[in-house]
Amino acid sequence: MYGTEQVISGTIIAGPELIPIEGYICVRNGIITEVGEECTRSKNIIAPCFVNAHTHLGDSVCKDPLLGKTSGFRIQRDLDSLVKPPDGLKHRILRETSYKILVEHIRRSLLDMIETGTCAFADFREGGLVGVAALNKALEGLELHSLIFGRPTEPQLPLEVVLAEVRRILLHSDGLGISGANDLEMELLQGITACTRDRKKLFAIHAGEKDRSDIENALSLEPDLLIHLTQATEKDLNEVAQAEIPVVVCPRSNFVTGVGMAPIAEMLETGIRVAAGTDNVMLNSVNMFAEMEFMSKVFSIDDRQVFKICTLNGSFVMGPDSASSIEKGNKANLMILNGSSNNLAGIQDPVGGITKRARPDDILAVLHS
Length: 369
Hints:
The chain contains 14 helices and 17 strands. It is an alpha/beta fold. It has a nine-stranded parallel β-sheet. Helix 4 links the parallel strand 8 (118-124) and strand 9 (145-150). Residues 45-342 form the Amidohydrolase-related domain.
């Protein structure tokens, strides 16, 4: 009820450094009004919600694709055949999917996000203005903070025709999200970037996913956000850090498509601001617990840093309101976990325990502001 104060007790993963403290949180009108330390018998663990900083939710219409050709006992995966526009598998499926079905399946993924502790997401929306409209429709009535990056449907058309569509898309989205600098003519990319800047919207682009051949051109566009950088060299990372461009990594997706693993530890050492996303729904669920566990067990990164990448670092992409640390005055985007569940009972380090083994069924409640 409006104006009612809610008090939650337990072990709190508090502040920007995610330090566990035993105590309580007071929440009024979606804002944290107090964080106090005191002894409590509660086994709850109170943590910031996830930010899924890179998704393709249109893929929700195809959750079990044939990933490639079978050769002996191995599946050969080809990233381009799966996702490259205009004729990758997902683009062919999207062309054959009705608007009604698209909205229905996107909404199911959005509901899955809420149920699995995510409070904010950034989506690269295929399908032009219709694709953006489908996501906006699916979001109606849901408590999720979103960034929607649209893209033109037929970039092979004359430049002015494409830019006219881009301007329409920008009226209904937060910016433009492009598949890669090798997929469009540089003149068109520069025009798209200029349109986006003129309207004070965001420009994001995939780069360095299967090789590094598109990184230089992507950086020349001065994007607000880069996705993947799986094949980035030390020189590339230094340039990204100098330009202060956040990077979203998608480890499970990169593993499934066989393009390698992003140099996350090196990114962090270079000073790059790193967030994480689940990428294509056709390849992975939107479950950020799975993304976090995978990252913690594959990469040589401290658990606290992994947890921060999947939660608070989303503010580098989404803005500060989307990924608030648990502090007085911040928005209450919280998930309350059952620390006495069969899965979590007995963990000694709440941050490490959540990072390595927590699951959606450990969630008792989620608060979104």
